[in-house]
From TrEMBL:
Family matches, as PANTHER family: HTH-TYPE TRANSCRIPTIONAL REGULATOR LEUO-RELATED, TRANSCRIPTIONAL REGULATORY PROTEIN
Family named by the database record: Belongs to the LysR transcriptional regulatory family.
Coiled-coil parts of chain: none
Transcription regulation among keywords: yes
Chain ranges passing through the membrane: none
Keyword Ribosomal protein: no
Keywords, sorted A to Z: DNA-binding, Transcription, Transcription regulation
Protein name listed in UniProt: Transcriptional regulator, LysR family
Single GO MF annotation: DNA binding
HTH lysR-type domain segment(s): 2-59
Pfam family, one: LysR_substrate
């Protein structure tokens, strides 16, 4: 197995026909290049160069090597270059794990941009399974996970997408939609709908915030996802507290600032080291961040 540096030295000697100039081109000393030439002669079993008054002249064997040598060095250089990525013609599959909220607030606008910039990239969206997430990312079952900092497994790369806050929503022709602001008393008196991710719960972050000030509300409907919630609100006098990004894209709903301070949350994207340097994945993550900033 011949050293790649020896091949680079041979290429320089063939081009320069002078040991001193070849050494300067390689940023080496003349004795170092002379020593490399000795090793090259041993490897190829040929003098390769003979001395003349003006420098060195390649032998017939050296001239035979010149063409293939250029091709080998060019191939190695290409191999060592970072792979290029053109989203307009790229073909790959991106698998995303998302909650019901992230599906609407993040994935839907992201897919729109993805189709516009990279029509050949296919997207597969799966539900988040927190207990399996680390293994799924490691195995390559999932490329991106849309989660929160407190649910991000250790040893993953992660980036903040945005900070979310809660708003109060009701149908836009609700009897209480005409007021400028909803009072705390009225807020607590109205019937509420709630999204319980794991199902069955009639309390959540809003109830915790109310309990801190000695108040409570009446939750009469609990559903497991946000998809059906707008329709429930549009067909009833129920109100709900939901993440702001969901409310902004729901037709027929009036939006109010809740009369109680409710802690928001941060949405992040997480990925494994195996895709950290992949050009296509780096581009997709950048597009995701850019989309969420809009």
């Amino acid at each position: 197995m011949i050293d790649l540096n020896l091949l680079k030295a041979l290429d320089a000697l063939l081009d320069e026909r002078n040991v001193t100039r070849a050494a300067q081109r390689l940023s080496l000393t003349q004795p170092a290049v002379s020593a490399m030439l000795t090793r090259l002669r041993e490897s190829f079993g040929d003098p390769l160069f003979v001395r003349t008054q003006r420098g060195i002249t390649p032998t017939a064997r050296a001239l035979e090597l010149a063409g293939p040598l250029k091709q080998i060095l060019a191939d190695v250089e290409t191999m060592l270059q970072p792979p290029s990525f053109d989203p307009a013609v790229a073909e790959m599959t991106l698998t995303i794990a998302a909650t019901d909220y992230a599906l609407q607030a993040v994935v839907v606008p992201f897919l729109s941009e993805l189709r516009r910039h990279a029509p050949g990239i296919r997207a597969v969206v799966l539900p988040v399974q927190h207990e399996r997430l680390a293994g799924q990312l490691q195995r390559g079952d999932i490329d991106l996970a849309l989660i929160t900092p407190d649910t991000t497994p250790p040893d993953l790369h992660a980036r903040r997408l945005f900070d979310e806050r809660y708003v109060c929503v009701m149908r836009d022709d609700h009897p209480d939609a005409a007021v400028d602001a909803l009072s705390l008393d009225r807020f607590c008196a109205l019937d509420h709908a709630l999204v319980s991710y794991h199902g069955g719960s009639l309390s959540g972050v809003t109830d915790e915030a109310l309990a801190k000030i000695g108040r409570a509300r009446r939750v009469t409907v609990s559903v497991t996802g946000f998809l059906v919630l707008p329709e429930i609100l549009r067909s009833s006098d129920l109100i709900a507290v939901v993440p702001r990004r969901l409310a902004l894209h729901a037709d027929g709903l009036a939006i109010f600032v809740p009369p109680v301070e409710i802690p928001g949350f941060t949405k992040t994207v997480a990925w494994h080291e195996r895709t950290h340097h992949a050009p296509g994945h780096k581009w997709a993550r950048a597009l995701l961040v850019q989309t969420c900033a809009c």
